[in-house]
Design brief:
It is a single chain. The strands form six sheets. This protein has an eight-stranded parallel barrel with strand order 4-5-6-7-8-9-10-11, surrounded by five helices. It starts with a helix and ends with a strand. With about 600 residues, the chain is an alpha+beta fold. The chain has three domains: about 1-350, Glycosidases (TIM Barrel, Alpha-Beta Barrel); about 365-375 and about 505-600, Jelly Rolls (Sandwich), CATH 2.60.120.260; about 390-495, Galactose-binding domain-like (Jelly Rolls, Sandwich), CATH 2.60.120.
């Protein structure tokens, strides 16, 4: 009898979920507030990005946001993640299944704010735009350039098929859709913004729209459109919301990005924003019944080569670290922080719904130290070269990220001042197979000295690493590799052989042991380790210098000895009981060394 009762209860729950999923809702904008089925609704949202979270943990992270007091999840969609190759879309496999993520939000009783771009920023490579756009030499983005808009239209048309059934008007959880992102910080093309909205409407997107911009008059003027709610990045005072009201008194405004944390670049200290100021901001929003979105409630990880970069001038460059922990309330591995408990307690004082218990956390594990031995170098893995009169960037032959080797012979000048214009982003310079020096893009110091040699026509090799395309403001056209030319004492060097090294997971899995084939900078290490159980871990890369890590074929991302990040997150789902394999590519490390699995980011 007890067994039958359990079955009937399970059936009842499933029928309830199904019937609730089919219930259509109306979300509208009044002059001053949001209305859900004609009743005032305060959005308390936590943002997270499906591409940055292992799909196996999506439900847990959503449950964590709900247990902090949120009733909504804000979701960035990364165009270049959903269209990994030009014209080839992926909305089904693993982290690409956006519709499934949104369905899980609904199953967990959460509403959704959809942030589909096409540009999103997000400290993500190229702000989410696909690198194939950069094949076009004179491409202009985020405007009415016909070539850009043709690609945008195809993306929107395809994405609409996934999200249209999930609108609240169709029984789904999506309440609003954002138009572009922080456009007032970049441009002022109103026709572009209106065209984006028209494409969505043509595709049956019939929920309200909103924009998101800084709370300054010029940003709101350039970035907002008539009839769309106004998002403020961030809105934390009467003055901020007054600016929105001045711009358009006929729509509601909300804090579309309230920042509980902040981003970190390589070479910086960990960002640790003041928690007391955050508490004041959130208390203001709660007291005044303002809707808001935590950017981010959980950051996750820039796995692979997905991290972006910032630049404040043509010669500045600040690449983002692999972790997107962001000092968020829910840390990189999904654990609550003291900030989480502070916000949970604060929100609970103002909402009229019961905040659920915190869900169980995934187990973490330590992995004892084990040896990694060098087994080949990139010199032995070079593909067939591309011949070119002068260097070309990666995008010209369709490479998205990774490394590329440029090679030529020195005729005329054989030594002196070698200048790369421009190096995007990190270069190792070799002469006759011997390492000479490095060049880093940031700061504009792009010259090294080549020594004299007895070789008649010395061989010059330049290994370039792309470290993430700029994702914000005016310098986003950011091709990777050598973007213009190389000169020696002012003479332009010609006749290059170019060797693409995209470092895809298939490439890494196909590596075979071999001799070094040249200087032993750029070495691949490999090892196997045994596990009797799995759990989340971080691989401690502090014994290495600068490179990339793959575990069981999964690219964990970049590490760099300048810090602050030395531990790379590996979710339990990427490990297995029994034999596991790790491969490391390091630009400088040459000798046998060790790694281990530790329990935290720091």
């Amino acid at each position: 009898m007890l067994y039958m009762k359990k079955i009937l209860l399970a059936v009842f729950v499933l029928l309830f979920i199904f019937s609730n999923a089919q219930q259509k809702h109306q979300f509208t904008l009044s002059h001053s507030e949001f209305l859900l089925d004609k009743k005032p609704f305060q959005i308390i949202s936590g943002e997270m990005h499906p591409a940055r979270i292992p799909a196996e943990y999506w439900r847990h992270r959503i449950q964590m946001a709900k247990a902090m007091g949120c009733n909504t999840i804000a979701v960035y969609i990364f165009w270049n993640y959903q269209e990994p190759e030009e014209g080839i879309f992926d909305f089904k496999n693993g982290n690409h299944n956006i519709a499934e993520f949104i369905r899980i939000c609904q199953q967990e009783g959460m509403w959704v704010l959809l942030r589909p771009g096409p540009y999103v920023c997000a400290e993500w490579d190229f702000g989410g735009l696909p690198s194939y756009l950069l094949k076009i030499p004179d491409i202009k983005v985020r405007c009415m350039d016909s070539r850009y808009m043709s690609a945008v239209t195809k993306y929107f048309d395809r994405l609409a098929k996934e999200v249209r059934p999930l609108l609240c008007t169709n029984g789904g959880p999506i309440l609003m859709v954002q138009i572009e992102n922080e456009y007032g910080s970049y441009g002022n093309d109103k026709e572009y913004l209106e065209t984006l909205r028209k494409i969505w409407i043509r595709n049956g997107i019939n929920v309200p729209f909103y924009t998101a911009d800084g709370a300054t008059p010029y940003m709101l003027d350039a970035g907002s459109i008539e009839g769309a709610a106004i998002g403020l990045d961030s809105g934390s005072s009467d003055a901020d919301f007054d600016q929105a009201k001045k711009k358009n008194p006929n729509v509601p405004s909300f804090s579309s990005e309230t920042y509980p944390g902040w981003l970190t670049h390589w070479g910086e200290k960990w960002a640790r924003p003041d928690t007391n100021e955050l508490k004041k901001e959130v208390e203001y929003l709660l007291q005044h019944k303002k809707s808001f979105n935590f950017y981010v409630i959980h950051g996750g990880t820039n796995f692979g080569f997905t991290a972006g970069a910032n630049a404040s001038s043509p010669v500045s460059y600040q690449p983002d670290i692999t972790s997107y922990d962001y000092d968020a309330p829910i840390n990189e591995q999904g654990q609550p922080t003291p900030k989480y408990f502070m916000l949970r307690n604060l929100i609970s004082k103002y909402v009229d719904y019961k905040i659920p218990d915190i869900p169980h956390l995934a187990p973490t594990m330590l992995i004892p130290s084990f040896r990694l031995e060098p087994f080949t170098t990139f010199w032995s893995q070079l593909p067939k070269p591309i011949h070119s009169p002068q260097p070309k960037p990666m995008e010209s032959w369709g490479q998205k990220q990774g490394f590329v080797l440029y090679r030529t012979r020195l005729i005329g000048h054989k030594s002196g001042k070698l200048t790369i214009t421009e190096p995007h982003d990190y270069a190792l310079v070799f002469l006759n197979g011997k390492f000479i020096d490095t060049i880093f893009r940031d700061g504009g110091k792009w010259t090294v000295s080549l020594p004299k040699t007895d070789v008649k026509d010395p061989q010059l090799d330049i290994l370039m690493e792309g470290m993430g395309r700029i994702n914000f403001a005016q310098y986003m056209i950011d091709r990777k590799g050598i973007t213009d030319r190389v000169t020696l004492n002012g003479m332009t060097l010609m006749n290059w052989e170019i060797y693409p090294l995209p470092m895809t997971e298939n490439f890494i899995q196909s590596l075979k042991p071999s001799g070094n084939g040249g200087d032993d900078h750029g070495t691949f290490f490999r090892s196997a380790f045994e596990l009797t159980a799995t759990g989340d871990t971080y691989f401690d890369m502090s014994n290495f210098s600068k490179g990339v890590v793959w575990v069981n074929g999964h690219n964990l991302g970049r590490y760099w000895k300048i810090g602050p990040q030395f531990h790379l997150y590996c979710p339990a789902s990427w490990l297995k009981k029994g034999k596991n394999e790790i491969v490391v590519f390091d630009l400088f490390q040459k000798d046998v060394t060790t790694v281990k699995g530790v329990s935290s980011l720091e």
